[in-house]
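Fill in residues.
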């Protein structure tokens, strides 16, 4: 009986290791796809409970610009400028370059290769494969579900789950960018209250 349990446990560990290798292979394909794009533009839709909207962002290295509803976020890779047009307010803070949330730091939102995140294949349907990602740092709670095209590595969907909260982001387009990423220009926001947390 003990020998049978031992064999089952060994078999499960082998299957798990193969799944991890497969998920890492998919993540490398995603990283290569995004790397090939270089500087790029993305359009997306967001669902969080009753809230639904669309947005867009562009990325060049560590710099980015996000537009969602009546808000914009600029970053030069060092500082983050969050503009709220309804409140006429600009919040400035240091950039968290390690953040991988697409709505906070799209420069690294598909970068999960390595040992910072544990990954496994969650579901497969047609040409899509969904991976479950969990940070190995226990301080970073929650789960990430990344759905990609298994053939070319294009990321199609990313879902963030934390307890009962869930944010679903569908990537509707990804294209190489032709122009420069917009930079924060304080002269465009005269009359806005500027709050600097740096």
């Amino acid at each position: 009986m003990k020998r049978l349990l031992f064999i089952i446990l060994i078999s499960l560990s082998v299957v798990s290791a193969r799944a991890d290798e497969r998920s890492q292979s998919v993540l490398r394909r995603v990283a290569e796809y995004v790397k090939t794009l270089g500087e790029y533009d993305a359009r997306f839709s967001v669902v969080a409970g009753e809230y639904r909207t669309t947005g867009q962002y562009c990325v060049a290295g560590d710099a980015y610009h996000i537009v969602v509803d009546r808000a914009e976020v600029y970053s030069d890779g060092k500082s983050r400028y969050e503009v709220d047009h309804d409140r006429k307010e600009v919040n400035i803070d240091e950039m968290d370059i390690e953040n991988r949330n697409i709505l906070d730091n799209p420069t690294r939102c598909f970068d999960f290769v390595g040992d910072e995140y544990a990954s496994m294949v969650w579901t497969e349907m047609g040409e899509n494969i969904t991976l479950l990602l969990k940070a190995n740092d226990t301080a970073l709670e929650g789960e990430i579900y990344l759905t990609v095209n298994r053939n070319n590595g294009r990321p199609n969907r990313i879902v963030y789950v934390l307890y009962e909260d869930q944010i679903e982001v569908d990537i509707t387009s990804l294209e190489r960018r032709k122009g420069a990423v917009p930079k924060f220009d304080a002269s465009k926001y005269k009359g806005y209250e500027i709050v600097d947390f740096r």
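The chain has one domain: 2-196.
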